[in-house]
Specification:
This protein is mostly helical. It has a domain of about 60 residues. Helices cover about 85% and strands about 0% of the residues. The radius of gyration is 18 Å and the shape is flat. The protein starts with a helix and ends in a 5-residue tail after the last helix.
Length: about 90
Amino acid sequence: MHSTLLVELYIFVLAVFVGFQLISKVPSVLHTPLMSATNAIHGIVLVGALTLASTIHGPLAQIISGGAVFLATLNVVGGFVVTDRILRMFHTKR
């Protein structure tokens, strides 16, 4: 069990490092399309959280799944708000 936790921690740290390196090298022109794709992925996460919430039993599991649905919803809405704000920066004033 202890070695499994170390492997999972190693994978997590490696994923954080690689993710940071990838995101820091993305040009600002590609930010909006990537944000839209990320919103689609977060939508899938929200569907998964809703599916999980509908199949669980027990008060602790309901609280945890409700939190997952809440956080996934915040993630999707926040992503669309940020994307909309970025797109408004490129609009010309008439």
